[in-house]
Amino acid sequence: MSDRTRIRRIPEKAVTDVATLYAVLDAARVAHVAFVHDGGCVNIPVASARDGDRLLLHGSTGSRLFRTLADGAEACVTVTLLDGMVLARSAFESSMHYRSAMIFGRPTEVEDKLVALEAMSEAWMPGRWATLRAPHARELAATMVLELALDEWSVKVSDGDPDDPPEDLDEPVWAGVLPMVATFGDPLPAPDLRGDPPLPDYLADWRIGIVS
């Protein structure tokens, strides 16, 4: 733990288990990447996926963010998962269930882009990569993948019950937790779908796996 990864606000919610970090990153599809550009702070959402002990970030070679980071700029990457609403007897004590991760470092450009893209595809769409056409050279040329080592990070998890003070317990207000889960809906075929291909079997696994 470094000084900047030490959780100061409600430190009892800090989690130092790397398995929890991995679980948070694996459940996310988007990370927010903060960096300094032209003297100002910028924070941009990008598609992300964990591959072992690195976080992969997917973007365009024309992206200001990716060009800046590829040149050696430092970044702060954050991921937040919202798991529920904590309904206390007062607005002040009401809160949320969440899991969040913060990672510091200097992302570098991935050399084996095709391997990284396959890893990202399998993280987002398990089982689909092998069924797709191979990327064209122009598509690879337009795509940049950055990797950020999971060396300096912090994780914070909030999952408790309402913490009302004793004087509020007799208030005639319902209190408790309303869980939230992410799910896929029913598949919608593209209007230009040709040849009546069958619905992939792996979609059923996706609908189970995304609930976290």
Give an overview in words:
This protein is of the alpha+beta class and 212 residues long. The protein has a single domain, classed as Roll (Pnp Oxidase, Chain A). Helix content is 20%, strand content 34%. It is built from five helices and ten strands. It has helices at 18-27, 64-70, 113-124, 137-142, 202-209, and strands spanning 14-15, 30-37, 40-51, 54-60, 75-87, 95-105, 108-109, 143-149, 152-158, 176-179. Strands 1, 2, 3, 4, 5, 6, 7, 8, 9 and 10 form a ten-stranded antiparallel beta sheet that branches. Strand 2 and strand 3 form a beta hairpin.
CATH topology: Pnp Oxidase, Chain A
For the largest beta-sheet, the strand count, sense and barrel status come to: 10 strands, antiparallel
CATH C-level name: Mainly Beta
- So, CATH architecture? Roll
Distance between the termini: 27 Å
Cα gyration radius (Å): 21 Å
Layout of SSEs?
Blueprint lengths: L13 E2 L2 H10 L2 E8 L2 E12 L2 E7 L3 H7 L4 E13 L7 E11 L2 E2 L3 H12 L12 H6 E7 L2 E7 L17 E4 L22 H8 L3
What's a concise summary of this model?
The chain is α+β, with helices and mostly antiparallel strands and 212 residues long. Helices cover 20% and strands 34% of the residues.
List keywords for this structure.
212 residues; alpha+beta; Pnp Oxidase, Chain A; ten-stranded antiparallel sheet; 20% helix
